[in-house]
Automatic annotation (TrEMBL):
Pfam families, per the entry: HATPase_c (PF02518), HisKA (PF00512)
Catalysed conversion reaction: ATP + protein L-histidine = ADP + protein N-phospho-L-histidine
Enzyme Commission number: 2.7.13.3
Domain Histidine kinase: 226-441
Transmembrane segments: 21-43, 183-206
SUPFAM superfamilies: ATPase domain of HSP90 chaperone/DNA topoisomerase II/histidine kinase, Homodimeric domain of signal transducing histidine kinase
The name this protein goes by in its record: histidine kinase
Annotated GO biological process: cellular response to phosphate starvation
Length: 453
């Protein structure tokens, strides 16, 4: 058992599980990174929107800029400190990009801030009419954070002349920055937590997507192994029988009739097996329903044939039909289905056994019931009865010509009709198969690789 598990784990299909996990994990990583970037960008734009709009308004306020320029040029009276708020600072640059002596609209402490702000800033003509962010070193605590706008301005001098200058308008955003840092911490922490969770989800999805494939793979292996085993037995018998013929080269056909008969019997079994295997392979890719108008006479002819076969086998057959009008059925598939069930009942009933087949239509459902008074099937075997090559009693079934493929074919036909087949105990003894197929919604049964097995 350990060798089998080790072999499965080392198979190409299982190894591909790592690739599936990597694909899912990378997809989740890209999604979370993109989501985090988008959320942070949108949040920044929202938080800075009012500040940026205020900077644009101040850059268009001629009175504000003129007052600020007079403060820095020293032409304002001491009482006139400008009408801009304490969170705003202004630096003017001459045409050569050199700043004027710093001044502020607030008290001396603000001049201290503006002085450090001036030391940290350099005029860049490429930044004209654009809003940027800057952090200024605070020797006594946390850094100051500003948003600023660079633009042109014309100063009206006292003597009536004008001076073209450049101006940078600053707005302190320390509070916004603190809120932004806290929000970013929450966002990044949440994204990392979900990103780590995506590892578990990726492993689950990789395993989940491979489950039906692995199941189909194991069923395929089992099918090939069982088919090889079934072929090995008749081939061995044929080899032994032919070797016996060579041991008596002078014997007549009558003398070796037993060996010849057994060889022919095994050849017939091999032919039946290969035919059923071919049918299974064809059915696996999908059964195409080809309905045609069908009346009660179709089933009456089947009943007549089954009655004759049962009589030849020393058993009795009873057919009950409750069908009015015409229905659409794939007559070849339905006959194959009923023949499989009838043949199964014929094999597993004793001499003078009784077999019955009931056909009735209930709304859009056609119900078949095939019952016998044979050996019956245990509850444990009922769960496996539709598996390929499964036989309740392999030794006795081989003697009766059973290969364990008939009921598997029957179930595929029922599935193609989107129907259901069940096996029950027949009171007081025997087995009863009940089939319900839909007449209004037949489907083509696709390969079941991605269906739950």
């Amino acid at each position: 058992m350990k060798k089998v598990i080790k072999k499965i784990k080392s198979s190409a299909i299982v190894k591909n599980d790592g690739k599936n996990f990597l694909h899912f994990f990378l997809a989740f990583t890209v999604i979370f990174v993109a989501l985090a970037v988008i959320i942070i960008q949108v949040m920044q734009l929202g938080m800075y929107r009012a500040t940026d709009q205020n900077l644009r308004d101040l850059s268009q306020n001629q009175a504000f800029l003129q007052d600020a320029a007079n403060n820095q040029l020293g032409t304002n009276s001491p009482q006139s400190r400008g009408d801009y708020g304490p969170n705003n600072s202004v630096i003017f640059y001459n045409s050569d990009g050199e700043s004027f002596m710093p001044s502020s609209s607030t008290a001396q402490s603000s001049d201290f801030v503006l002085t450090h702000l001036q030391k940290s800033m350099k005029f860049k003509e490429s930044q004209l009419n654009s809003i940027s962010s800057v952090s200024v070193n605070n020797p006594y605590g946390d850094d100051w954070h500003y948003r600023y706008l660079t633009s042109r301005f014309i100063i009206n001098n006292v003597d009536g002349s004008i001076t073209p200058v450049y101006v940078q308008i600053f707005s302190n955003v320390d509070q916004i920055q603190d809120a932004m840092s806290r929000a970013m911490f929450v966002i990044i922490t949440t994204m990392i937590a979900f990103w780590l969770l995506s590892v578990v989800i990726s492993l689950y999805l990789a395993n989940w997507t491979l489950k039906p494939i692995l199941s189909a793979y194991e069923k395929q292996k089992e099918f090939v192994e069982n088919a090889s085993h079934e072929l090995r037995t008749p081939l061995a018998i044929l080899q032994n029988r032919l070797e016996l013929l060579f041991q008596n080269p002078t014997s007549t056909i009558i003398d070796e009739s037993e060996n010849i008969s057994e060889s022919l019997s095994e050849v017939r079994n091999m032919r039946l097996l290969t035919t059923n295997l071919l049918n299974l392979a064809r059915r696996e890719s999908g059964i195409k329903i080809s309905p045609e108008p069908t009346t009660a006479s179709y089933f009456e002819n089947i009943f007549s044939s089954y009655e004759m076969l049962a009589e030849n086998a020393g058993k009795s057959f009873t057919g009950n039909l409750k069908l009015d009008g015409t229905i659409n059925l794939d007559q070849a598939l339905i006959k194959q289905l009923l023949t499989i069930l009838f043949d199964n009942a014929l094999k597993y009933t004793h001499d003078n056994g009784e077999i019955s087949l009931d056909v009735q239509k209930a709304g859009g459902i056609l119900i078949f019931t095939v019952a016998d008074n044979g050996e019956g099937i245990s509850d444990e075997d009922k769960k496996k009865i539709f598996d390929r090559f499964f036989r309740v009693d392999k030794a006795r079934t081989r003697q009766k010509g059973g290969l364990g493929l008939g009921l598997s074919l029957a179930k595929q036909i029922v599935d193609a009709y989107n129907g259901k087949i069940t096996v029950e105990d027949n009171k007081p003894q025997g087995t009863k198969f009940v089939i319900r197929i839909r007449l209004d919604n037949p489907i083509t049964n696709p390969a079941k690789i991605f269906q739950k097995l």
